[in-house]
Amino acid sequence: MTRFWIRRRGDDSAREGGADTGGLVQAFGKLGNGLRVQVTAEGIALIGEVDLATREALRQALTLLEEASVASRVVVDLSCLTFIDGRGAGLLADAARSLGPAKTLVLRAPGQSVRTVIEALRLDAVENVVIEPAPNA
Fold it and tell me: How far, in Å, CA of 45 to CA of 16, rounded?
């Protein structure tokens, strides 16, 4: 089982991650071997790689994001993600479906290798998924 730590805003202590994350605001920290997840103002940023070793950690992070999200747009920044396998991309599609039609999952700034996987699996065809470039692009 992958363990990760959640910090609440204004709290220097950390606690083990779980479903009770109402105050989720700061960094998740390192999840698995090669994946970091950072909480942003609009959602999360994925840093590193999503593969067999880190897929469960991504699933947990996306579940926490879904539970903590109140905005109509939930952003997953992919600009620092260097690799994602097909099943990892499938987790993004599952997260979009879990958000429901009233919310949009924004996949921001995927690099070329990540974009290739996303397009091959037709994530852009999922009703509430939007792929957008980096803000300054």
Answer: 20
Please check whether residue 81 is in contact with residue 57, taking contact to mean a CB–CB distance below 8 angstroms. no
**Residues forming beta bridges with residue 83, ordered by sequence position:** 49
Measured distance CA(61)–CA(55) in Å, rounded: 10
Q: Which domains does the chain have, with CATH numbers?
A: 27-132 (3.30.750.24)
Between CA 130 and CA 87 the distance in angstroms is 19
**What distance in Å separates the CA atoms of residue 43 and residue 99, rounded to the nearest whole number?**
13
pLDDT values of the chain reduced to their tens digit, one per residue, 137 residues = 344 444 333 444 444 443 333 444 344 444 455 899 999 989 999 999 999 999 999 999 999 998 888 889 999 999 999 999 999 999 999 999 999 999 999 999 999 999 999 999 999 899 999 999 988 76
Q: How far is CA 50 from CA 12, 55, 91, 100, 103, in A?
A: 28, 6, 10, 24, 24
- Write down the pTM of the prediction: 0.77
Vertex 79: Cα angle to 78 and 85 (nearest 5): 45
3-class secondary structure, 100:
coil
